Amino acid sequence: SSGINAEYGGIGCIPWFMMNELVATEYRGIANSIICAFNWLCSIVLLLTYDLINDALSPYTFFFYMAVVIFFLSFVLFFVPETRCKGEKSIRQQLERQASHFPPFVWIQ
């Protein structure tokens, strides 16, 4: 309980801030549902796997979680555009340019 409270009092609410900048207004309802479901899914996976990973990697358990965080941090640094002082149209064009480098099944239009 305290872990979930700490998450939502700290960095757990960042996806909702990002959604307002990266998702067009007409898609924010469905995006909010997906973000909320994914966020809770990650919390459930963390809770269900902690004991298993702790038994296998103790005392290095948190290095595993640190590696996961570093992976997703690098994803954000390379794929999430900077939105400071940019309009929605400019952000959308940048995302479309980035999406053109990936197969169509990765980018939902």
Residue share in helix: over 70%
How would you sum up the major sheet?
none
Chain oligomer state: single chain
| Run of helices and strands | HHHHH
β-strand amount: under 5%
Residue-averaged pLDDT, rounded?
77
> How many β-strand stretches?
0
Provide the gyration radius in Å.
17 Å
Number of helices: 5
Distance between the termini: 37 Å
Uncertain stretches of 5 or more adjacent residues: none
Shape from CA axes? elongated
Q: Provide the structure class.
A: mainly alpha
Q: What is the secondary structure topology, with strand pairs?
A:
Layout: H1 2-9, H2 14-22, H3 28-57, H4 61-79, H5 88-99
Can you describe this structure in just a few lines?
The protein is mostly helical.
Structural write-up:
This protein has 5 helices and no strands. The chain has 109 residues and is an all-alpha fold. The mean pLDDT is 77.
What key attributes describe this structure?
5 helices, mainly alpha, elongated, 109 residues
